[in-house]
Amino acid sequence: MPSRPLRYLPILMLFLILTALSGFIAHRLALQLGLAELQATGQHRLDLYTASLEREIGKYAFLPGTLALERDVLALLRQGKDARLTAQVNAYLEQLNDRAGTLSIYVIDTAGHVVASSNWRSADSFIGEDLAFRPYFLEAMESGSSNGRFFGIGTTRGEPGYYLASALADDATTLGVAVIKVSLEQFEKSWTTVEAPALVSDENGVVILSSVADWKFTTLRPLDDATRSAFDRTRQYNRRALTPLGLKALRELGHGAQLVSIARESPGMALPSPLAGRFLAQSRALPGTPWTLTVLSHLEQVDDIAQSRAAVAVAAAALLFLLGLIANQRRRHLRDRLAAREALQTAHDQLERKVDERTADLSAANQQLQDEIAERIRAERTLRAAQDGLVQAGKLAVIGQLSTGIAHELNQPLAALRTLSGNSVRFLDRGDLATTRTNLERIAQLVDRMGRITGQLRNFARKSSGQLQAVPLCRAIDNALALLEARLIQANAEVRRSCPLPEPVALCDVNRLEQVLINLIGNALDAMEGQDAPCIDIGCERIGRQARLTVRDYGPGLDDDAIQHLFEPFFTTKQAGVGLGLGLTISAGIIRDFGGTLAGANHPEGGAIFTLEIPLCDENEHND
Ligand code: ADP
């Protein structure tokens, strides 16, 4: 990416080119318009000056010819020198000159000598002067009519003027020439505007009339030697220096207009500012003369206007360019903002789409999870039902194990009852009522004992409600031991039990707790089978908010395999038909349902110890 200043270089270049171009075009247009305007004004002035000059000259055109009507004039020319006639004609000419307002009026004979003149009184009178070399004389003599027109400087007084000459003829003979010299000074004075000078040049390019006094008798173009010697001969400009004006053509514009420049300084002349510089020169030939009228219009003003318009155009272009730049900048800024907003919207849409997708995924996952949970709950229910079934099966198994003992337990009192009832009948026959009474009381005791045994068996076999309730733990131990009484007696086992006061009460199902205890005590008896004096320690204590029950035996203890797989279903080391390997699995499940734990370990002093912990009742805790 180009650095900042370099990036703006093309814009700066464009700015410079545009402003320069608009300045240039405005300058050119203003110049052209100004020139056209100047040309129109110049043309108007040209018309005006031409008309007034024609009028001025035409005013006197007839005058020389009228002298042919004067008898005395003709007589003087015819007769030659005659003092009286000369005096009369001189007086006449003097009068006429005064009336007509001309410079001088004089009459020349065919030889070229002045025979009479309006200025006869003055010392430098023309009378007697030889003017045969003057072109107007020659022309008039040649044509024999009033054709002699000439602008020149007087040879006597050196006074410039316009000469109108006319041949004076008597019948067909030319007797002489009448000449009127007119001053065009008044006419010149009407061109007073110095800023827009006007001039009349003759066929040789000599300025003969000019609004600028210094320009008079200067040349517009260089004179060749032939022309100069002709001037010497005719003394047209009375040997004036005729220096060049210093005018240089710059460009032709058509219709007699051109751009010219006049040098500020030329030999023998230093011009003030409005008379030097660049001009629009418009020329026109004056009808009836070989002269050219030229009006000059200074270009300074047009230049000034063109320059100021160019400056305005440059400023306007710069302003427009800057406004354009600002508008462009603003447009780009808006476009960037729009793009950013669109990008943001796109990102937002994408995010929303992703969130929707994720939400859909999440709800699908959630649904799946819910389905899984429902499945688990169903499985758990099935498991629980199966477990309940197992518990029941376990109970029935225990009952089966107990049945031999119980049958034996019931057989004994039944036999005693048979004997006692037979004896009682005999004692009654003998009339020994005291012995009969004693026998009956013994019978009642035996029946009670049998009722207790069957009641406990019924309680144990009953299906558990599943409802947890406050269970006094020592009573539960007693019930379990009562159910096992026959087995304990048969094995000649000693049971050592301790129970603290007050009796701990746990929140559980009494029926199931008894089942667990019967299982643990049964396993202990199995482990010590064959020992002479088997002994079982049953403990009950409070540990914080828990009740801890322990069943310890003095058997061989648990080997590594048994410790590893103790609570796994169908793990058993017992003979087929004796053990199913379900007792501890079911017991652990029951205790877990109570919110407690069951663990088996080897006692440090030998034998196995099973520890059972279940939560105490709140009420029980308060009592504590
Ligand atoms: P079963 O009694 O039907 O075998 P149990 O789950 O009650 O099933 O016991 C599993 C096994 O744990 C027993 O086979 C025995 O190997 C071991 N066991 C249980 N209690 C004791 C104990 N007090 N001493 C030694 N081993 C025991």
From TrEMBL:
Q: Where in the cell is it found?
A: Cell inner membrane
**EC no.?**
2.7.13.3
Q: Please state the protein's primary subcellular location.
A: membrane
Can you tell me which residues the record assigns to a coiled coil? 341-382
| Stated name of the protein | C4-dicarboxylate transport sensor protein DctB
One cellular component GO annotation, for this chain's record?
Answer: plasma membrane
Residue span, Histidine kinase domain: 405-618
